Automatic annotation (TrEMBL):
Keywords: DNA-binding, Transcription, Transcription regulation. Transmembrane segments: none annotated. The keyword Metal-binding does not apply. Residues 14-77 form the HTH iclR-type domain. This is Transcriptional regulator KdgR. GO terms for molecular function: DNA binding; DNA-binding transcription factor activity. GO terms for biological process: negative regulation of DNA-templated transcription. Gene3D superfamilies: 3.30.450.40, Winged helix-like DNA-binding domain superfamily/Winged helix DNA-binding domain.
Length: 261
C-alpha cells in the first residue's frame, strides 16, 4: 500500500467523494490487491456502516467488486475500463509509445505491450505496422493468457504457486487448431519459456497470426508487462520474428526505464 498517496487523498477532502476515492486507492494499492470491508474501515478510520454504504455504491458503479462473490473486495470491471482508457491516452503521448514506434520502424512489424488483468492479457499500448496484411487489435483489447505470446511469457515468469493458481482457475479453451489445451503440455511450454526468456504464438490465439514476446523486466526481476511483435503467418515466420529478439530486448529494457521504481 502507498501510505503517502492515501495521506494525500485524505488531506484533500473529507466528503463522500474523497472517502470513495480513498477506498479505491486502498483496494488497488494493497499488497494482495484485495481487502475486506473490515480492513478498509480500519485503515481509513471509517465507521463500519459508512464503509459498507460506500463500498456498496462503488460496486453498483462497477468501480469495485467482490472477488468470486466472496468477502474480499477487488477492482471492478468499469474501473479497469477507465484505467485502460487513461493508459491509452498517457501512452500515446509518452516516451513508451515512442519506444514502440521505433521498434516498429526497425522491424516493420506490429508491436504491443500488455499486462495481466482479471485473468486475461489487456493491451496497454500498440503501434501498427504499415502493411496490407497487418493484424489489428485496439488498445484495451483482451486475449487469453494460455494462447497469447505475452500471456505465456508472463505466466512462465510467475512464482510456481501463483502460476498454479492461474492455471487452476482458467479454462484452456481451444481458439485454433494450434492452441495448447492440455495442462501438462502447457506447463512444459511455460517451463521452456522461463528458461529461454522468449515466448511464441504459433497461430494459437488467432488463425493466420503469429507472435513473439519478451518480458519487460522491472526492479527485483519483476515481470508485470510483456512486449510482443505480431504478424500474419502468410508473410512472416517464427524464425523471422526470432531475428528481432535483440531489438525487442533493447526496447523492453528501455520500456522498463520509463517506469519509476
Amino acid at each position: 500500500m502507498n501510505e503517502k498517496r492515501l495521506e494525500t487523498a485524505a488531506s484533500n477532502g473529507s466528503g463522500t467523494v474523497a472517502k470513495a476515492f480513498q477506498i479505491i486507492q486502498y483496494v488497488t494499492s494493497s499488497a494482495r490487491h484485495s481487502v475486506t470491508v473490515s480492513e478498509i474501515a480500519e485503515e481509513l478510520s471509517l465507521p463500519r456502516p459508512t464503509a459498507n454504504r460506500l463500498i456498496s455504491n462503488l460496486i453498483k458503479l462497477g468501480m469495485l467488486k467482490r472477488d468470486g462473490g466472496g468477502t474480499r473486495i477487488i477492482e471492478g470491471d468499469e474501473l479497469l475500463h477507465i484505467a485502460g482508457d487513461v493508459l491509452e491516452g498517457a501512452a500515446s503521448r509518452g516516451p513508451r509509445h515512442e519506444i514502440l514506434r521505433q521498434l516498429v520502424i526497425d522491424t516493420r512489424e506490429t508491436a504491443n505491450v500488455g499486462a495481466v488483468s482479471s485473468g486475461q492479457i489487456v493491451y496497454l499500448d500498440r503501434v501498427e505496422a504499415i502493411w496490407p496484411l497487418a493484424f489489428r487489435l485496439d488498445v484495451g483489447s483482451r486475449v487469453p493468457l494460455h494462447c497469447s505470446a505475452i500471456g505465456k511469457v508472463l505466466l512462465s515468469n510467475m512464482p510456481q504457486a501463483q502460476r498454479r493458481k492461474y492455471l487452476d482457475a482458467m479454462t484452456l479453451s481451444r481458439r485454433t487448431d494450434n492452441t495448447i489445451c492440455a495442462r501438462d503440455a502447457l506447463e512444459a511450454e511455460l517451463d521452456n519459456i522461463r528458461d529461454t526468456g522468449v515466448a511464441f504464438d504459433n497461430e494459437e490465439c488467432f488463425e493466420g497470426v503469429i507472435g513473439i514476446a519478451v518480458p519487460v523486466l522491472f526492479k527485483q526481476n519483476q515481470h508485470s508487462m510483456g512486449l510482443a511483435l505480431v504478424a500474419p503467418s502468410a508473410r512472416q515466420t517464427l524464425e523471422g520474428l526470432r531475428d528481432f529478439l535483440p531489438a525487442m530486448k533493447t526496447a523492453a529494457a528501455n520500456l522498463a526505464k520509463c517506469y519509476p521504481d
